[in-house]
Amino acid sequence: MANAFDPYREALVVERHTLWPAEFEDWSAADRARAEERLHASPAEAAELDYVRQHTGFARVITVTPADLDRVSAT
User: Fold this and answer.
1) How far apart (Å, rounded) are the C-alpha atoms in residues 54 and 52?
2) What digits encode the pLDDT tens for the residues 14-51?
3) Would residue 56 count as lying in a domain?
4) Would you say residue 43 lies in a domain?
5) Prediction pTM value
């Protein structure tokens, strides 16, 4: 189960990762990078957000959903 947005953990994010489902494997690297930048710019709005504890802080992990892509492509 994904975590809710957490301002405390967000302040300690030292890495960010994006998980892409197989249905988006045909996207170019440039298109993925553009979408990832927009998704991580507003993590509170991500449908599937998780924080992974690390020694130095947290890694933010966003799993891409079609709803997320609709949202970031509208901006």
Assistant:
1) 6
2) 999 999 999 999 999 999 999 999 999 999 999 999 99
3) yes
4) yes
5) 0.90
